[in-house]
Design brief:
Elements (H helix, E strand, L loop, with lengths): L6 H12 L32 H4 L3 H4 L3 H13 L1 H21 L6 E12 L10 E17 L4 H67 L5 H36 L34 H22 L4 E12 L11 E10 L5 H68 L5 H35 L19
Helix pairs in contact: 4-6, 5-6, 6-7, 6-8, 6-10, 7-10, 8-9, 9-10
């Protein structure tokens, strides 16, 4: 080697020739520990169509204009989603730090040293003052990644970054469905409030009627007290639902991350634009597109990469330290051809016995089993959530239809009881019983309508719907030597 300029290219060439080895085990996606199709009671036809054909974008699924505006505001202002995005950016930068470990660190330095040696220590007995000027470019302790230790750590950092991105998507799905649920809760409670207010008005009218009949000597005094209990009960329900509407609005504003204008509030369930119906054919393979399951798989891939890094520690490590520059006792001669100076100091460390390294390798293998179990559990949990949502969707429509028929029957009973009471045929006890039954039936009807809407939102969320972004890239799996 004649000069320092030859050292760095030579080292780069050596690295490119030997850095292809990797000791990480080969990754293959584990089989899903769930059936290929949903339970028979779910009422879903077998299908193999991709998730993108089953799940529309949230703007298409939630067709109500007010709800769309609230979701957009939440995606822009919600602090949980903002925190998740910051965690993704942090993981991205950590991956950049780890990836940079494979690159050499080159420093430039310049130094001046002036030294005086007393006469007693000099060869000729005279005091000597010397100067040393130097300028160098140095490559310090650059590891040749012969066995893929740095590459495996970089792969693990990449998978952690991808996992954080999937976590952000999971938060986004939860946020979208959470805003929709809060919007539906508010709409349902507004309808319940309107029902309580109309019931209070009806009870007040009945109270006035009974009072007139009492004054005319037609009805006994006990009937007036009975109807008064219904008036106070209705007034109590108005206060209760007024409170609940306020709480629902607070919950919605927390999710949105800002105050919600009155013009974006729902008027009631019946005024909301219906949700888009999902296609009937859904395969359980759609679970593999859920962000939480992709996140668990990314973490499993990271565990595989960590095994490769732990294995590589048991093999020799070679580092290069080299400097090239000039040195002179005069500043003017610093860049003369004769003042060139360089050093080249490769170092190899061969592990002979290190119990900690072997224990660390065993830890990474246990970590892989933990990540595998978490991945399988995530799939099983997702299957349970979707199966439950399908079971609710397949039956809530029948319950709603039955309740609507029940409300019609109870309303007719109340009408006839009131007419018979006004004619003096029945006592007010029959009217009172019919009123209670009608109010309770109408409250249940609102609850079933709300359940119908919520079941659709729930199914959309647990299937992994809620964004229209492309899937995160998957790193090339490492191979076992």
């Amino acid at each position: 080697m004649k000069n320092a300029a030859n050292i760095l290219p030579l080292a780069l060439g050596v690295l490119s020739a030997v850095s292809g080895c990797n000791l990480a085990p080969t990754y293959s996606r584990p089989d899903a520990p769930v059936p290929a199709q949903w339970p028979a009671h779910a009422g879903i036809e077998p299908s193999t169509q991709p998730a993108t054909d089953v799940l529309p974008d949230w703007r298409e699924f939630f067709a109500d204009g007010k709800l769309q505006q609230l979701i957009e505001k939440a995606l822009d202002q919600n602090r949980d989603l903002r925190l998740a995005a910051l965690n993704v950016e942090r993981a991205r930068q950590l991956y950049g730090v780890q990836r940079a470990e494979a690159l050499p660190t080159v420093d430039a330095s310049a130094a001046f040293n002036r030294q005086r040696v007393p006469g007693e220590l000099s060869r000729d007995g005279r005091a000597v003052t010397s100067n040393l000027f130097s300028a160098n470019v140095a490559l310090v302790a650059w590891e040749l990644d012969l066995f893929g230790r740095i590459r495996s750590l970089s792969d693990a950092a990449l998978q952690q970054f991808l996992a954080s991105e999937q976590a952000r998507r999971g938060v986004q799905i939860m946020l979208i469905s959470g805003v929709a649920d809060a919007y539906l809760n508010l709409a349902a409670d507004l309808e319940s409030l309107k029902l309580a207010q109309s019931t209070l008005q009806a009870q007040q009218d009945t109270y006035n009627l009974v009072k007139k009949r009492l004054e005319g000597g037609i009805s006994p005094e006990i009937d007036l007290h009975r109807v008064q209990t219904q008036v106070e009960t209705a007034r109590r329900e108005v206060a209760r639902f007024t409170q609940q509407v306020a709480l629902d609005r607070n919950a919605l504003e927390l999710l949105v991350g800002a105050p919600v204008p009155d013009d974006l509030l729902p008027a009631g369930l019946s005024q909301i634009t219906p949700l888009k119906e999902l296609k009937p054919g859904i395969s359980s393979e759609i679970l593999l597109s859920r962000p939480d399951i992709i996140q668990a798989e990314n973490q499993l891939r990271a565990a595989y990469a960590n095994i490769g890094a732990a294995r590589a520690v048991l093999f020799p490590r070679i580092t290069l330290t080299t400097t090239g520059g000039t040195a002179s006792n005069e500043l003017a001669g610093l860049f003369d051809a004769s003042s060139r100076a360089w050093t080249f100091a490769p170092q190899m460390v061969m592990p002979i016995f290190d119990a900690r390294a072997w224990s660390a390798l065993k830890v990474t293998k246990v970590d892989r089993q933990i990540a595998l179990t978490q991945y399988e559990k995530a799939i099983q949990t997702g299957f349970r959530e979707v199966a439950d949502a399908l079971a609710v969707r397949s039956t809530v429509g029948q319950e709603l239809a039955a309740q609507e028929s029940l409300v019609r029957a109870v309303a007719e009973t109340y009408r006839l009881s009131l007419a018979r009471y006004e004619k003096g045929v029945d006592s007010y006890l029959d009217v009172l019983d019919a009123q209670r039954s009608l109010f309770a039936a109408e409250e249940v009807l609102i609850a079933f309508r709300h359940a119908m809407w919520s079941s659709q939102v729930r199914l959309y969320a647990v299937l992994g719907g809620g964004w229209n972004e492309p899937s995160a890239p998957v790193a090339t799996p490492a191979t076992e030597p």
